[in-house]
Amino acid sequence: MGKMDGITLERIGNLHLVFLHLPIGFVVAAVLLEFWRWRRPSAEGAWLQGRLLAANAVVALLTAGAGLAMAEGGGYADEVLAQHR
Question: Cα-Cα-Cα-Cα dihedral of 19, 25, 31, 37, to 10°?
Fold first, then answer.
């Protein structure tokens, strides 16, 4: 069994790309649900859509945090980071 080093800024930073794509999927799902709700309005659809958008906000914050951790974790030129931000 291998030794675990624990949670580091580098490991959190590596999740930036994963977290980055989750909000995109949540927004696409919310838009598709909106089209569905035009044809078949329901309270459940509205509830689910609200939860998708709330999850989107949380994951967007995680994305930003992981990006900051990635920037701190290193190896990126200041100019590249400034352009990305």
Answer: -110
